[in-house]
Amino acid sequence: MFMTPKSLMHLRPENILALKHANIPSEVLIHPETLPNGLTTKDLTTQGVHFALVDMNRLLPNFGAGTVDLIIDHHEDEGVHPDAERLIQVPTGSCASLVTKYFRSQWTAATSGPAGKSGSPVPPELASFLLSAMVIDTAGLKSGGKAVGTDYESASFLYPLSTFPASTPDTSDDGDISITSASPIPQALTDFSNQLLEQKFDVSDLSTHDLLLRDYKEYILPTSSTSFPSLQVGLSTVPMALKKSLEKESEGWSSYMKALDGYMHEKNLDVEGVLTTFKTDKKGKHKRELLILVRSGGSIKTSEEAKRVRDELVEGLEASGDVLELEVWGEKKSLKLNKNAQEGEELLDSGFGGRWGKVWLQGNDKATRKQVAPLVVSQSDLRDFHADTCSETWLPSSYRRYDII
Predict the structure, then answer these.
(1) What count of other Cβ atoms lies within 10 Å of the Cβ of residue 18?
(2) Spatial separation of the C-alpha atoms in residues 382 and 399, rounded to whole Å
């Protein structure tokens, strides 16, 4: 099942291109809202459906208490569904590499017969589709990036079975190919990877709302606080510098913050994190930024409590050291988007509308949402907060990741 709602597929044009290249019509995809016979996702459990989870290791709550038979994932194991068969490997650049690893022995056995690779049960389009996911997730299997040994091994296995040309400088007499961090990636795969990544980062026409939604994950943080027993947290990865997002807005910081407020209200979020990833215009250097915003009006009832949560989150995140390497956000002085040069900072960090936040430049440009999400949980020393006293330090014992898109 494709978890991205059908109405939101346009937010991930790289996925549409990958499907098209693999000759998979969008009409054949099953989305939660397109289940046949009016079924809902929770109805699947009552119909006796069992689940295999890919790229997550906790069944989403909208499926109910279903039976999970298999988990293939590259995120930290949350320890649920203990009876499920598991292939969880951290770090791995792409979960598609683990899918390939899981089935590889069966596929290898099938290609070992007299028919050789022509007898493979892997359609060339499927091999290309898995490769597409790998290069999207690892920025083209770039050396020094997210790709690890498993990614290169899976790519080496799939490439000769794919729709890409099998003849490359690294092809041996028996048709095998070696794709490693030290060897050139086959040109045909590199060319397609560049097309996919160009599509992925072509987001100039998207609104702030759509940018927040296109690569979004939601977390429930249970606490022992009597003031807020749990917090709803959203983390949005945005492939655009915050400065450019502000330049797109009609009123700079003011309308950007209105969009963030509206998004948090729509999702009923107590905390929203915006994780930007982009390349600089002049030198093409990869950079990341992190914006954290806490609002009152949901689980957090008052602006005073929201400020306290913000302060503790800031303290914990800044104490992460070289995990994130958070630095002063240098765009504050250069932005000339409002009459008052400090207006943006005030809107973000003044309690306006019960919101409190902070923005940093992230020195460690390799740290992604996988590193930020656990830090929001484990590094934050949040407390019950009252006007005249603080008590009962709490640390969330666990968190649940809900993949939305």
Answers:
(1) 23
(2) 15
Q: For residue 110, give both structure tokens.
A: 């099938």
Of 79, 352, 377, which is closest to residue 230 (Cα–Cα)?
A: 377
Q: What is the mean pLDDT of the chain?
A: 83
Distance between CA atoms of residues 165 and 187, nearest Å? 9
Backbone angles phi, psi at 245, to 5 degrees: -60, -40
Strands 230-238 and 286-295: unpaired
pLDDT tens for 310-322 read: 998 999 999 999 9
CB 95 within 8 A of CB 55: yes
- Closest by CA position to 154, among listed 181, 176, 131, 124: 131
Alpha-carbon separation of residue 138 from 91, 145, 169, 212, 248 (angstroms): 12, 7, 22, 21, 28
Distance CA 132, CA 114 (A): 29
Cα-based angle 90, 92, 94 (whole degrees, multiple of 5): 135
For 175, other C-beta atoms within 10 Å of its C-beta total 11
Question: Contact 211/202 with Cβ under 8 angstroms?
Answer: no
CA 155 from centre of chain = 21
Neighbouring-strand partners of residue 233:
219, 271
Cα separation of 65 and 59, whole Å?
A: 8
Give pTM, 2 decimals.
0.76
- Residue 240 one-letter amino acid: M
- SS3 letters across 105-162: HHHHHHHCCCCHHHHCCCCHHHHHHHHHHHHHHCCCCCCCCCCCHHHHHHHHHHHHHC
Share of the chain above pLDDT 70, in %: 82
